[in-house]
Amino acid sequence: MNGIVSEVQRRGRVTCAEYMELALYHPELGYYTRFRSGCGPAGGGGDFLTAPTASPVLARTLAGLLTRLAELLGEPLCLAELGAGEGLLLGTLLEALGEARERVLRRVVAVERAEWARQRLFERCHSVETAQDLGDVPGPGGPAVVFASELYDALPVHRVTLLRKGDLLVLGELYVEVRGGALHWVEGPLSDPAIGAYLETHGVSLWEGQQAEVRLLTRPLHARHLAWLGLQGLLLVLDYGHPANRLYDPRSRRLGTLVGYRGHRVVYDVLREPGECDITAHVNFDDLVAVATEKGWESEPPQPLGLFLAQTGAFEHLPPAVALGEPLAPEDWAELAAAKRVLSPSGMGADLKVLAQGRGRVWGAYRALATPPLADA
Ligand SMILES: C[S@@+](CC[C@H](N)C(=O)[O-])C[C@H]1O[C@@H](n2cnc3c(N)ncnc32)[C@H](O)[C@@H]1O
Fold first, then answer.
1. What band does 376 get if pLDDT is binned at 50, 70 and 90?
2. From the CB of 149, is ligand 1 less than 6 Å away?
3. CATH code at 315?
4. Is 146 a pocket residue for ligand 1 (Cβ < 6 Å)?
5. From the centroid of its chain, how far is CA 148?
6. Is position 61 within any domain?
7. Nearest atom within ligand 1 for CA of residue 117
């Protein structure tokens, strides 16, 4: 029997959040955390593409943005990447900065839960502080930028549904249980009253039979990230998600957004291959905005990745032949095709969103650089 299935059987019944925690982050069996010697989960040889693994344009554009921010502020920045994986983004970003690194970045911090990935990141990127948790490293001690690509959508979620009980509609939870040696969903009462309160806070009323996810971990984790930044900083969150009214819209999201990925294919039954496939559910961007507002931070509305890139200088990082209108060499064509993935107003360029939040001088500098286009978008 698969080790995760045995663990669920041992526990009797687990919430979807507990199942995701096991399937993704169990030290020996978890999809992200178990040791890997070959390809990592994200990238062409893995199970899914993320923006940093799809094209170097994102990392190069961020390098350009950081350079302009440091120039405007008149001092180098601390950069922290959260959920940094194997360091593909950081590696390309630092390479793009080259000798300018000292002028632009005072410190580089990479936070990643998986030890094998931290080790690879450390080997790939020079002079980077690595940590399992942002709380394990000292605060930035000056202007800082935090970047997170597909961190929040990889956090465990509870799965809920609106059930009919006689004449009543009752909010129930979907649990995971072993039956006949395999994992199955079973309905039960809410495991935590905070789940009902969460939906109420967001003004969400599910329809009968609708399924949805509730991620209780987002707010406390995001609050810790903001606290680490202190009184000034810029946070760029890149993720799949929507505001609550779209995320829980019964007409378009009747079965929620929980899916897996394996071999670049969607796995609709996330119980089928525990520990062997990625599991993800969209982010409720309202959570991130609410925490930021409570703590005195400002937020811009989430915008499509392609638009963010276009407005922060991505076209400067396309092969020069593109701007010159010259014939493309085969390697330029491949680079352009990869860039199209993250820039195009369909696919990743539209589905992935960038949420910018900030406070103090760094936020002022970002707004000055990004304004008017980002503010007006
Ligand atoms: C979907 S992958 C994204 C990797 C990379 N950012 C990218 O975009 O290619 C999510 C990563 O976040 C890491 N992760 C999940 N929860 C974390 C946490 N609380 N702190 C740090 N890393 C975390 C996982 O181990 C995994 O490497």
1. very low
2. yes
3. 3.40.50.12710
4. no
5. 6
6. yes
7. 27
Residue indicated by tokens 């940590």? 131
Q: Is the pLDDT of residue 374 over 60?
A: no
Residue 111 beta carbon below 6 angstroms from any ligand 1 atom: yes
Tell how far the Cα of 174 is from the centroid of ligand 1, in angstroms: 25
Return the bridge partners of 363, or none. Answer: none
Burial class from Cβ neighbours inside 10 Å (0-12, 13-18, 19+) for residue 203 reads exposed
Q: What's the farthest any 2 CA atoms get from each other in the chain? A: 70
Please tell me if the CB atom of residue 286 comes closer than 6 angstroms to any atom of ligand 1: no
262 located within any domain: no
Number of H helices, E strands in the chain: 17, 17
Question: Tokens 């080259």 — which residue?
Answer: 98
Q: Is the CB of 114 under 6 A from ligand 1?
A: yes
Ligand 1 centroid to residue 199 C-alpha, Å:
26
Angle subtended at Cα 211 by Cα 208 and Cα 214, rounded to the nearest 5 degrees: 125
CB of 53 shorter than 6 A to ligand 1: yes
Dist. CA 29–CA 320, nearest whole Å: 45
Say which residues have a Cβ less than 8 Å from residue 2's Cβ, sequence separation at least 6.
274, 275
Residue 148 alpha carbon, nearest atom of ligand 1 = 6
* Domain annotation covers residue 326: yes
Our count of domains for the chain comes to: 1
Nearest CA residue ID for atom 12, ligand 1: 83
Strands of 94-167, DSSP E: 105-111, 129-131, 144-149, 158-165
The answer to whether 122 and 128 have CB atoms below 8 angstroms apart is yes
Whether 191 contacts 102, CB under 8 Å: no
Whether pTM > 0.90 for this model: the answer is yes
What number of CA atoms fall less than 13 Å from residue 341's CA on the CB side? 15
pLDDT digits (tens, 9 = 90+) for 55-99: 999 999 999 999 999 999 999 999 999 999 999 999 999 999 999
Residue type, 88: L
Ligand 1, closest atom to CA 25?
25
Cβ-contact 256, 242 below 8 angstroms: no
Q: Domain span at residue 297?
A: 51-155+216-249+274-368
pLDDT in tens, 145-187: 999 999 999 999 999 999 999 999 999 999 999 999 999 999 9
